[in-house]
User: What shape does this take?
Amino acid sequence: MKLYERQVNALKEQVTLCEATSRQQIEYIFLDEMLTRKLMDLDNVVVENDESVRQIRKRLVSSLQESINLLESKVPPMEEQTQSARERRKRELTQNENLAEHKKSSEEPLPQTSDQNNVDRRSQLQQAQIEKIQEHVERFVDLRQRRFDQDSNTTKARFSLYFHDISD
Assistant: This one.
């Protein structure tokens, strides 16, 4: 049990020092995996009516759960990160649109010449192209994020297999 105590304390210290900002960062994935593994290891400890071992195991499980909660509180969930990035993009687009509308409404319309008509037509075409590009970028970012999530799950599985082999 002393070995478990040392390992749990070492993990707790690593969680305290963790500076991960994303759940895809290797530091976060590693600590999350190691904490989960220690919980599973402690689940396999046989108590056999020994109250002192049961109390130590209970304390260690509680400590691990606190460490997991601390780790999760340091890094927002992936959905929140993705949503906040999307919301930021939407706010920026809305602000740009509002600014453009404000400029249009505050300017006096001038009589248009054929050159101005051509310029306006080009501006409209450019704006349409910009909107298409923005849609493509948003789709690309979403696809990229889904791919990253899949890669992250694959990485977790690999870590799981790797550390399982080491701990045996």
